[in-house]
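Dear support,

Our group has been running a series of protein-ligand predictions, and this particular one with arginine is the one our PI (initials K.S.) wants archived with full inputs and outputs. We had some confusion internally about which version of the output was final, so please treat the block below as the authoritative record. The input we submitted was:
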Amino acid sequence: MAQLWGGRFSKATDELVYRFNASITFDQRLFEQDIEGSIAHAVMLEKQGILTCKEKDDIVKGLTGIRQDVLEGRLKITEEYEDVHSFVEAVLTERIGEAGKKLHTGRSRNDQVALDMKLYVREQVLEVACGLGNLLETLLDLMEKNLTTYMPGFTHLQKAQPTTLAHHLGAYFEMFKRDVLRLQDIYKRMNYSPLGAGAFAGTTYPLDRYYTSALLGFEGPTLNSMDSVSDRDYIIEFLAALSTIMMHLSRFSEEIIIWNSNEYRFVEIDDGFSTGSSIMPQKKNPDIAELVRGKTGRVYGALMSILTTMKGLPLAYNKDMQEDKEVTFDAIETVKNCLVLFQGMLSTIKFCDEVMEESAMKGFTNATDAADYLVGKGVPFRDAHGIIGQLVLYCLDKNSSIDSLSLEELKAISPVFEGDVYEAISLKTCVKKRLTLGAPGREAMEKVIRINREFLDHLWFEEKA
Ligand code: ARG
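Confirmed final output from the archive:
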């Protein structure tokens, strides 16, 4: 057991207590952040005359060496240390002697862990944003290629009006775009350094918190030391954003699963992204989409977990907060993996254009347009709605579609119909005429694609990553 404390204890910690309390098994993930923060702290201590130049140099060299040795596998982080902070300080002292013991001057593990976690989450916000950026790129490419790939649009999972694949995919583009912007908000709001808050009441040493915050790339130091050590809002916000990303991925997955079903056959998932059955030789399952949908649960779980952990915690630091790590790490890894896999599946998926177009022709997806046709001939919309309703009933009876009825049949229900109706309610016309911004009509879609291309050309995180 290697602990940073023990002076006021007359008895060793019980083995079970030690293990229950220790966090090294999971907080070792923060070791690079711990070293980065410690270097900034040491450099500042020297600038403020608290460490000598030689002490600072020894510490910085020692810490850099530890980082190298761990990264290259020469030094193992073992469970003999209570947490990552103890590990770094103990090894440093072992390596450089007395100066190592001075590193913790004016610092507490409370502001240290707050800083480590913030540095880690800040970096992960960028990584998740990058994953989203790649997915957006794939989506926009697909949109450009599918401006006239017709398909039915649904409400209540019933065919409603015709649209295009570009338009349908464009809906997901907007969702993931909002996710990227949400991450930008979080990044901005969280980017303040807690280092220098000490245990919770600052310190009597003349620390320069502006300096360490600048060294670590923060916007500035946080303004209340009690809040600094006990704020986990940014983790909650990030988990909420991750949950929303998963909700979007899960909806998309669900559609892919439906489209891939035997009944729809709108898409064929690439062999590389499907799995088989151990018993049914004919099966090719959409497991990746199902797993992405399924993993949404554990990310929501992480959010609920931290919200619950933080609920009712008095100021300032409480050990409960150690529970912020494992679920957060897990949620981040889950989302990053899901983004990569989903993008891979999407970029290799085969869209069955003919099946989709044929499906769009059925199910009276042009009924609204047929009503609009009558409106164009002077019939009030409510009456037109009634006439087309009658037509649909007639077609259902004959197992036919509006556009395959003869002009005589149409005229029998309303004399207003003329020969131009067929062109007016053809699938292509139905889509082509939908030109309000955000609609599937070609020019409208092209404009949206231009705007979104521009968005992708100036992603906020690209200069930071
Ligand atoms: N392992 C602790 C955590 O994750 C580090 C902070 C420890 N501070 C303390 N006062 N025991 O929160």
